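Protein in question quoted in full.
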Amino acid sequence: MTTTIDPDFERLLEYVRDARGFDYTGYRRPTLMRGFEKRMHAVGAADWGAYRAYLEHHPDEFSELFNTILINVTGFFRDKETWDVLAEDVVPKLLASREEPASIRVWSAGCASGEEPYTISMLLAEALGEEAYKDRVKIYATDVDEEALAQARDATYSARQLSEIPAELREKYFQRANGGFVFRNDLRRSVIFGRNDLHKDPPISRVDLLVSRNTLMYFAPEIQERILANFYFALNRGGYLIVGKAEALQKGRLFVPYNLKRRIFVKDGSAEPAFHVPRPAALPEMVDAGMEFGDAAFEHAPVAQIVVDTKNRVAAVNQVARALFGLKLKDVGRPLQDLEVSYRPVELRSLIEETRRNRRAAAVKDVEWEMPKGTRRSFDVSVALLAGVGNGLAGLSIAFVDSTAHRALEQQLEHARRELETAYEELQSTVEELETTNAELQSTNEELETTNEELQSTNEELETMNEELQSTNEELETMNDELRQRTDDTMRANAFLTSVLSSVQQAVIVVDRELRVIAWSSQASEILGLRDDEVEGRHVFNLDVGLPVSQLREPIRHVLNGVGDSPVTVEGHNRRGQAVRYSVVFAPLAGNEPDSIVGVILLLTADRID
């Protein structure tokens, strides 16, 4: 699957890398673009440049962006069939190869909020027993998302998150606390969480089991190869690598399939080069033979050497250097710049200054020099510091290593290589027909491989989109739970208010600041003859009831303005047409803000007039 490079988007990625140190340039572009576009729509940015400008002026947006890109979709025993194979087959073989008391090291790469490493912990504790698990097991869980790592370290999960754990394991390894379930602290100590960027940071080493599921698929193919090389380095010989169901390892001999259907692989030790680091031989005891021994060694050394002091005066010249450059013993004590060797075959003064300035050796290789007799020779020239008393500088040693023979061998090797190429071309011509057939087969194979890689890339992209949809679905479920809780709270509050209004013996009428009815008790319906659904939302002064509401205008205005008013007595009639005397008490309806008034409460008492 090919993706067109968008220069503006690439510049945005470079800005995020330089501004906050998060390098997403190795991630798959379609997945990245969807994450960035989601945040662009949220903040109203029209294009990549506008979103970069928004990031520059709103640094808090970086946190929202990173949380959107780092899709932490995980779960306990996710893809249960894979964990069954791990528990029943892989773990027993792993333990058989690591006899007691050898330690067992596990790396969970891309651990998100910790469900995966805790799943591994439960399996190993079941296989080893809790005491052996505590003594032998170390699980290193890494991710780039610090917020997810903080959740993992807290090790607290909801009942819904634990739903896929078998009941016996859930009761054995989790304890109720803080309104949720916490992984047991004594086993939690064996799980070490830390930040690790797979394509930039060095890998955890010497691990027996490496679990990285649905992490590789977010990276471009070349970054995947680099990460797999690090995984190869991290695993012990015969160690197991488990990747996601949509992830297929690239071509190579680093890992061989163990259970291809469940994406379980084994490190192939044949691909590991043998490194042999020789041990330095023990130094014999030094024999005090006087300064003559050192002088003789310098004089007869096979390499031309010149020693200068701190003032660039010649302090010593050995026999090879005198013969090679025409120097005499009387030249000892002269300034080096007065001698021809200071600039021929190479400019020594610049090398000496560089060595003194950097306080380390300097060297020049393949220096060509035509000798006085017309012969050409090649030298590797090096200048090294000579330490004096304490940390002082006693002088410098200049060595001329004759590499003429080495260069001649290189030329002979090049000549032999060209002859070999000629012979190879002749051999190729004799098998031309076979090569043509092989080329056709190779072409067909490459087409099949290209088609397979495109299908693999498409499969990884679909898996990524599936995780994004799952993440969005979890967010929507959380929002739905919150909305359901708020609806229940509102219904309980309404029921409570209705019960209170029904219990009050006086008629209760509540109006807002626009004098529209927002509450009408059952006693008010009994006296005035209108139901609550007939009056709610209507202007109180437009109601046709036996209460002369026009006479209540001024008291209501006073209460809305924060000025209390005395009860008012007015005459009218009730719903049966009987003459009554209404006693009305006014009270302010308080708002959420201190001293705010959002309406008026009217309490009515009706007495018949005989």
User: Anything to note?
Assistant: The chain is about 45% helix and 20% strand.
